[in-house]
Amino acid sequence: MASINQRILLMSKPKVLIVQELWWPKGGGGILATHLITKVLVRHGFEVRVVTGVEDHEVIDNVVFIHEPRLRASNKLELWFNAYIVSREGWFRKLVE
Fold first, then answer.
1. Phi, psi angle pair for 23, to nearest 5°
2. Fewer Cβ within 10 Å of end Cβ, the chain: N or C?
3. SS3 for 34?
4. What pLDDT is stored for residue 27 in this prediction?
5. 71 lies in a domain?
6. Following CA atoms 20, 77, 89, 72 in sequence, which dihedral angle do they give, to the nearest 10 degrees?
7. Inter-CA distances, 53 with 2, 7, 24, Å
8. 41 is in which domain, residue-wise?
9. What is the per-residue pLDDT for 96?
10. 5 falls within a domain
11. How many domains does the chain have?
12. Which contacts of 72-79 are long-range, i.e. CB under 8 A and separated by 24 or more positions?
C-alpha cells in the first residue's frame, strides 16, 4: 500500500517552469510556439509558471506570470549574466524545487 506522501505526490500536478526573455505578443516564431505549447500544457493539467522580462504580455488562464526586469537586456552577454544572477536568488530557487 502506498504511503500518504506517495499518494500526495501522485495527486499533485506536474510542474513546468518557463524562463524566457520575451513573451507573446513580443518576439517571433519561437515565442509564439512557447505560448501555444503553454496553453496545451495547462489544458493537460500542468501547473505552469513563466518568468519573463516582458510586462505587457498576453495572459493565459491558470498560468502564473512573474515579471523579472533583469531578463530584458541590451545584449546577450548582459542577458546571460542577469539570468545567472536571477538563478542564484532564493525566490527563483524555490520555483525550481
1. -145, 150
2. N
3. helix
4. 87
5. yes
6. -50
7. 42, 37, 11
8. 13-96
9. 87
10. no
11. 1
12. 72/21, 73/21, 79/21
Flag whether 60 is in a domain. yes
Check residue 94 and give its pLDDT: 93
Cell of 17: 517552469
Ordered DSSP codes for 27-91: S-HHHHHHHHHHHHHHHTT-EEEEEES-SS----TTEEEEE-GGG--SSHHHHHHHHHHHHTSHH
Residue-wise pLDDT for 46-93, tens only, equals 999 999 999 988 999 999 999 999 999 889 999 999 999 999 999 999
> Residue 54 sits in a domain of what CATH number?
3.40.50.2000
Neighbours of 55 (CB within 10 A): 11
User: Residue 8 pLDDT more than 90?
Assistant: no
Share of the chain above pLDDT 90, in %: 75
pLDDT tops 80 at residue 3:
no
Cα angle for residues 41, 47, 50 (degrees, 5° grid): 85
